[in-house]
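Figure 3 (text version): C-alpha cells given as input.
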C-alpha cells in the first residue's frame, strides 16, 4: 500500500527525496518531449504527404502523449509528496520527518479525504515520533 510501505521501509526523509527526484525527472521528460514535438512538427512536410510525413506526424503524436503522461505523473507524485510532508511534523516536539509508521490503511470514504485533494489512492498512517515517542495519525 503506497506510500505507507515505502515510507516505513525508507523513512520519510528518504522517501520524500525520492519523490522529488521522480517528479522532477518527469518534469524534465515533459520539457524534452515538448521540444521533440516542436522539432517533429518542423520536420513535417504536409505538401509532400507520404510515408516520411506520416512518420513525422506519428512522432508528434508519440511525443505529445509522452509529454502529457509525464506532466500528469509530475503533478501526481509531487502532490502526494507535498500532501504527506504537510503532516510530517510531530505535533508535540515539531521534529520534521522523524517518525516510524506503526499502522496504515486506505481512506475509505470522502469524509476521510480532504476537500480539494486529488485523493485517489491516499492512505492514512499511524506514526510514532522517533524523538519524543508521541503518536499521531497522518493526515490529522
Ligand atoms: Zn516528537
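Below: residues designed for each position.
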Amino acid at each position: 500500500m503506497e506510500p505507507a510501505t515505502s515510507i516505513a521501509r525508507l523513512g520519510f526523509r528518504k522517501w520524500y527525496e525520492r519523490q522529488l527526484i521522480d517528479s522532477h525527472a518527469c518534469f524534465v521528460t515533459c520539457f524534452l518531449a515538448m521540444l521533440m514535438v516542436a522539432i517533429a512538427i518542423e520536420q513535417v512536410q504536409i505538401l509532400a504527404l507520404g510515408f516520411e510525413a506520416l512518420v513525422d506526424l506519428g512522432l508528434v503524436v508519440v511525443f505529445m502523449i509522452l509529454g502529457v503522461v509525464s506532466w500528469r505523473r509530475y503533478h501526481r507524485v509531487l502532490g502526494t509528496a507535498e500532501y504527506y510532508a504537510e503532516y510530517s511534523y510531530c505535533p508535540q516536539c515539531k521534529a520534521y520527518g522523524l517518525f516510524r509508521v506503526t499502522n496504515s490503511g486506505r481512506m475509505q470514504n470522502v469524509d476521510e479525504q480532504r476537500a480539494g485533494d486529488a485523493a485517489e489512492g491516499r492512505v492514512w498512517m499511524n506514526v510514532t515520533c522517533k524523538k519524543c515517542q508521541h503518536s499521531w495519525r497522518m493526515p490529522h
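Residues 4-138 form one domain.
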